[in-house]
Structure formats: structure tokens, C-alpha cells
Amino acid sequence: MKYISTRGNAPAKTFTEILLGGLAPDGGLYLPEQYPQVTRAELDAWRKLSYADLAFAVLSKFATDIPATDLKAIVGKTYTAQVYSNGRADSDAAQITPLRTLSEGVHILELSNGPTLAFKDMAMQLLGNLFEYALAKKNEELNILGATSGDTGSAAEYAMRGKKGIRVFMLSPNGKMSAFQRAQMYSLQDPNIHNIAINGMFDDAQDMVKAVSNDHAFKARYKIGTVNSINWARVSAQVVYYFKGYFAATKSNDEQVAFSVPSGNFGNICAGHIARMMGLPIGQLILATNENDVLDEFFRTGVYRPRGTDHTYETSSPSMDISKASNFERFVFDLVGRDGAKVREFWSAVDKGGAFDIKGSSYWNDLSRFNFASGKSSHQDRLKTIREVWQEYGVMIDPHTADGLKVGLEQRRPSLPLICLETALPAKFAATIQEALSRQPERPAAMEGIEDLPQRCEVMDADVGKLKSFIAANVPQ
Ligand SMILES: Cc1ncc(COP(=O)(O)O)c(C=O)c1O
Ligand SMILES: N[C@@H](CCOP(=O)(O)O)C(=O)O
User: Fold this and answer.
1) What is the full DSSP assignment across 341-375?
2) ipTM of the modeled complex
3) Which of 10, 120, 148, 246 has the least CB density, counted as fewest CB within 10 Å?
4) Sites of the modification N6-(pyridoxal phosphate)lysine (predicted)?
5) Pocket of ligand 2 (CB under 6 A)
């Protein structure tokens, strides 16, 4: 299997090459030349598999340049109950992503039982092991440059801390994350972890990552890699839990389901789109935004109009405070019939701060073939949903999952079971939980008091030159 760029101007590469390379040299994102298809017989067989075996089956279709025995070993050591039990010793831990049923046909797929209590651990733990494997083979080092609005950063740092030959430079929006998220990252003292708080929003940080990645000489000299969902390996690992969730919520492969997905950078729901393109019977992919509603606007109106930092709001689902959704480009590539020239045309407008509009074109009609629905959620909606789920089911959900559930319930076709993806645990957002429920969320014993630990972080303006100097000063040459 080879991978091509959404902008159509980069040579095709293998899975391992793009794993270490991140963004394509033409500024695009990599996707498989064709989506591998899953047969009915495979679906029937996969239904019975453990998470690790299912991950091996799905990833074997993508990582075709990794020998099967090696891939099986990597996946086997990643998806264990120990890594995804978050201190619990119940039978749910063995399922890795247990399905919690709220009421008939309404489920939450638990994805946040990994080391940092967010869905990012599902792919990031695998990425850490894949990097280690690929780098050892090539006897190389990797300097990871990432951007986070709160969860990718800690997941990446926990997955990479202490790993030989890997350094992490993680940009986060200064003062915009929850106290718990800040503490998770900034309290790490490992010498290979560098936290950089940017005076700006997540989108500024992500632009800086792309600017450094597009400086090909710097990227090659300092061996820059990525852990954001612009890295295809992240998305492919996220495809797995759509299959797992589908099997858990249905009895046969004749049934269809709806997934509702709290969205920001369009990475999580892009994995759902890919699972559907592979043949998973997904009848609806419901995209939920918070007040930063660029993506909801697109699915309602056909206009993609990323906002600037000054029009990106700080909300109580802060990890979704994103107005320029990187992975959306992957979906648009499929929408426009994989026409790289069209994607280049659209993104030349977007990169200049503009917009594009598909309403008057045939793409608008084509959109319905992809089974998306969308909606948005506000602070008051979030509080109401958290309260209702707590009162009716005794289940505490985090503000992002609440956005997903609220929109999912509004948009679902009643005939379809709804699977809402849980994207974080409430422990990460104690202030909003306190406001909604007048009580504090529980947290794993190992994370008691992390806010009181000493923190280490470099504060920087959103200046690409300064960032490059910082990286150069911290990478031995
Ligand atoms: C808790 C949480 N929910 C939802 C999202 C949105 O996911 P995506 O960016 O993949 O759309 C994020 C960040 O990405 C997140 O950290
Ligand atoms: N919400 C994310 C933002 C980055 O998204 P990614 O999936 O592209 O890594 C975060 O929590 O950092």
C-alpha cells in the first residue's frame, strides 16, 4: 500500500516513510492510494476478536511494509488491559474500549481509559511503539514537533517519555487549557520532553508546526516528525475503535449505526469516515462542535470559513477550541473525487485567510453520499447534558463528550443505534463538572495532587524563527 498527498504534488510513499515524515512535502496530508475494503467474511470474523487482534487485522491493511510478526508484536504490547485500565481492575479493562449503554439504542464508547485520560492515548501509545521500532531499524533519531489544545500533548509526552532517540517539542496555547491538562504536561521533568506555551490559540501553534515542517532543509537537518493527526498513523489507529464500537453495539453485520463525534481538528471523525469508506456499515457520522463552529457551518451551508485567532472563543470544552481543522483536507480530497488540483485551489484561498464555498457546485450534492450530519453545542448545553446524564444514569461525562451526546441525540436517525465517542474523562475538567454537578470528579490515585507538582515550560510568542532557534539549541548536532 502506497500513500499519496491530498495536494497531488508529492511522490507516493510507504506507511513507514510517512510515519516518520508527517506532512507531505507539497504541504498536503497523506492518504492511502485506495481505501482497503473489508469483506463481509472479514467483518464476521473480526466481530469475535480482542481489541489487539482487531487492531492487528485493521492495521495490516495499512502498514503493509511492516512484517506481520513485527506488527502483531507491536500491537500486542500496546493494547493491553494494563495500559488501558487507568487503575481499574474490573472486567471492562480487558475490553480496552468498553461500550456503556445509557438507554436502549444510546451508547457511549469509552476511549479514555489510557494513561492520560483522553481518547488520544488510543493511537498515541501505538505511535510511540511504532516510532521506536522504525527508528531502531534505521538507527535514527526523531524530534517530534506537535501542537496541542490540551490532550494530544500529554498523550504524546506520556507515550514518548524516556524513549531512546526521541525528543518532544510540544506547543500549547498559553493559559488556555484546564489546570489538570497543564499539570499533566508541564510537571514532566524528563530531559527528552520540552513544553512550549505559545502566546496564542491552538491554531497559531498548529500553523507553527506546519511552517517548520514546510521548511524542508530544517526538517531534514533536525529530523522533525509529527504526532498530531496530520500523521496518518494516528488516524489509522483511530479507525480500529469504530469497528470495535460497531461490533459492541450490534448483533449482526446487517445492522447500521450512527456515531456522534465531538470534533475540533477533524481527526477523530476522519477516522470514522475512513472506516465507512472501508465498508463498515455506518449510517450516520454526526459531527459536533462547541461554539467554535466552523465545521458545523460547512456541513450546513457548504462554506468552509476558518476563523482567525481573534474569532476563536475560549470555551468550557477547550480541547475543541479550534477554527482551522487540519484533517478536513483529507475529507475534502475524497469529496472532490481525489482531485489534488482542486484541493490546492481551495487551500490557496484558506491559507490566505479566505474561504471556499461548494454550495453551487456538484460537490454539494455529492456531500450527502458521505452520510454526515452536524450540530453545535454551547456552555449551557454542556452543563445541561452533564447534569441529565448524571441524574438519569449515574454516569459522569466530560464537557467534550457532552457536546457529542447533545448533538448526537438531536441529529440521529431514530432507527439507528447511536454510539457517542467519549473523548476525555471528567477528571480533566473539574471546574466545569463542579459548575454542572456541584461536586468534584474522581481521578485515578496516581494523579492526585498533580497540580501541586513543580512545572517546567518555556513561554514564547507565535514566532517560527524563535521556535526553530529553540529546537536547534536543544538538539545535539
Ligand atoms: C477531549 C477532546 N475532545 C474532542 C477533540 C476533537 O477531536 P478532533 O480534533 O480529532 O476532531 C479533542 C481534540 O482533538 C479532544 O482533546
Ligand atoms: N484537541 C487536540 C488538538 C490536536 O488534535 P490532533 O488530533 O490533530 O492531535 C488536543 O487536545 O491537543
Assistant:
1) HHHHHHHHHHHTT--EE-TTSHHHHHHGGGTEEEE
2) 0.99
3) 10
4) 120
5) 148-153, 202, 228-229, 264-265, 267, 319, 326
Residue of 432, 383, 435 lying closest to 405 (CA atoms): 383
What are the cell numbers at 454? 513543580
How far, in Å, from the CA of 204 to the mean position of ligand 2?
13
Assign 183 to helix, strand or coil.
helix
Residue 163 · residue 128 · CB < 8 Å: yes
Q: Which helix (H) or strand (E) holds 472?
A: helix 464-474
Q: Which of 263, 309, 304, 254 is nearest to 283 (CA)?
A: 254
AA identity, residue 24: A
By DSSP bridging, strand 99-103 and strand 106-109 are: antiparallel
Please write the tens of the pLDDT for every residue from 220-260: 999 999 999 999 999 999 999 999 999 999 999 999 999 99
CA distance 323 to 176: 15
Give the closest ligand to the alpha carbon of residue 22: 2
According to DSSP, the β-strands at 193-199 and 224-225 are unpaired
Say how many Å lie between the CA of residue 332 and the centre of ligand 1. 19
Which amino acid makes up residue 108?
A: I
- Under the banding of pLDDT at 50, 70 and 90, the label for residue 185 is very high
Q: Which ligand 1 atom is nearest residue 268's CA?
A: 10
Within 13 Å and on the Cβ side, how many CA atoms surround 27?
14
In angstroms, rounded to a whole number, what is the distance separating the alpha carbons of residues 133 and 77?
Answer: 12
Pocket test for ligand 1, best of 151, 176, 315 (most atoms within 8 A of CB): 151
284, 416 Cβ separation under 8 angstroms: yes
Q: Does the pLDDT of residue 91 top 90, yes or no?
A: no
Ligand 1 surroundings by CB, under 6 angstroms: 118, 150-151, 229, 262-268, 319-320, 400, 423-424
Catalytic amino acids?
A: 120
Question: What pTM was computed for the model?
Answer: 0.97
Contact present, 148 and 124 (Cβ < 8 Å)? no
**Residue corresponding to grid cell 482531485:** 339
Query: What is the grid cell recorded at 338?
Result: 481525489
Contact (Cβ atoms closer than 8 angstroms) between residue 164 and residue 191 = no
- In angstroms, the CA 118 to CA 375 distance is 22
Is 89 within 8 Å of 62 (Cβ atoms)? no
